[in-house]
Design a protein that fits this description.
mainly beta; elongated
């Protein structure tokens, strides 16, 4: 039973590649919230799309993920000489409902936090 509850949470964290909200960060990495606007210029909404992973890819059953709370923002940190994006920072609240499509069992995983992607 415990494994059944922890597996969706771990899967969501691996698939989204985020850090826990408790991770320490420097100034300018404040979290977004429904009442707060970006604290620094250049932040813009970065909505998350629903996703599906087939059976056998990450676990023995197929999984569907869909955001139920999505207040993620992004800011371009670096660009290549041609102007294309090199690194992007993400911050904000994100709760994903991870569902076992075979049984309908689901878990809401809080994957809020801060991350940077190259």
């Amino acid at each position: 039973m415990r494994r059944t509850l922890l597996a969706p949470l771990a899967l969501a964290a691996v698939l989204l590649g985020t850090q826990p909200a408790s991770a320490a960060h420097g100034p300018g990495w404040e979290f977004a919230s429904a009442a707060a606007r970006p604290t620094a210029p250049g932040w813009e909404p970065a909505p998350s799309a629903p996703w599906d992973v087939g059976a056998g890819v990450r676990c023995d059953f197929s999984v569907h993920g869909e955001p139920v709370v999505d207040e993620v923002e992004q800011r371009v940190l670096n660009t290549h000489p041609d102007g294309s994006v090199r690194r992007v920072a993400y911050r904000g609240d994100l709760v994903v409902r991870v569902t076992n499509t075979a049984t309908g069992a689901s878990h809401d995983a809080d994957v809020s936090g801060v991350s940077a992607a190259a």
